[in-house]
Amino acid sequence: MRTPLQYILSLVFIGQMYLAMLLLAIWWTPFVLLRRDAAFRAVHAFTRWVRWSAAVLVGLKSEIRGEVPQDEVLIAAKHQSFFDIILIVSVLPRPKFIMKKELLWAPILGWYARKIGCVPVDRGKRSQALHQMVADVKAGVAQPGQLIIYPQGTRVAAGATKPYKVGVGVLYSELGQDCVPAATNVGVFWPRHGLLRKPGLAIVEFLPRMPAGKPVAEFMAEIEPLIEGASDRLMAEAGFARPGRQGA
After folding, report:
1. What 3-state class would DSSP assign to 169?
2. Contact criterion met (CB below 8 Å) for 47 and 90
3. Which residue ranges make up each domain of the chain?
4. 157 within 8 A of 58, measured Cβ to Cβ
5. Which residues contact 131 (CB under 8 A, 6 or more apart)?
């Protein structure tokens, strides 16, 4: 749907979303300063607001499928837009991300990211950062929770392809935790770039967990077709006809 009204509603939705982020951040900051747990309540409040307001303002409903992990696991998630982050964070009890180091300087987002235990990674020193993170987790320094990593390293538009990076396999192997893959179709409705938000049903699906202990090569060979196949299925369910293979 590309009517002028849908563009107007999309702008209204985006504007109120960032206003809600600001207002909720101000409201929750005193509580977060006293207790780290309040940071999780703050991000849950924001992400659930975004899901509700997306359904009301632009007709973009959302759904979580599969068993939502409650324990300490590695979550390898398909990343198509900001909305898949919103959906995942809205249901995980203690989510934390491996994220670009530059995001630490983002107003509001950076401070709250630190509070919930996100792990900043310097893209130029990714290997070093991963090894340090593994060491911190093993030493009990890192905050407990569900660690989310995007195996492709960035947002990838619906229908586009990008190879999976071995970093997710290294983390899986070194941490010795189960991995829960997550597929999505959100890019069909909320694109990587642009203002238009389309009506429909955006889905994040938690797939069956992969037990710890697989060799890295075996893990990498299994996880990419698993996530990509499930994401293709969800996009097809949304009426998206995947074009021929193309670059991201």
Report:
1. helix
2. yes
3. 61-237
4. no
5. none
Contact 57, 16 (CB under 8 A): yes
Name the pTM for this structure: 0.89
SS3 for 118? coil
pLDDT (tens digit, 9 = 90+) per residue, 51-78?
999 999 999 999 999 999 999 999 999 9
Q: ∠ CA 43-47-53 to the nearest 5 degrees?
A: 145
Separation CA 195–CA 187 (nearest Å): 12
Q: Which residues contact 70 (CB under 8 A, 6 or more apart)?
A: 93
* Model confidence pLDDT, tens digit, residues 177-188: 999 999 999 999
Average pLDDT in the chain: 89
**Of residues 42, 17, 43, 13, the one with CA closest to residue 27:** 42
The one-letter amino acid code at 85 reads I
Report residue 245's pLDDT band, with 50, 70 and 90 as the boundaries. Answer: very low
| H, E, C per residue of 146-190 | EEEECCCCCCCCCCCECCCCCHHHHHHHHHCCCEEEEEECHHHCC
Beta bridge partners of 148: 75, 97
Beta strand pairing call for 60-65 and 119-121: unpaired
Listed in sequence order, the DSSP H helices in 35-95 are: 37-58, 82-91
CB 84 within 8 A of CB 205: no
Structure-derived torsion over alpha carbons of residues 235, 92, 116, 108, reported in degrees to the nearest 10: 50
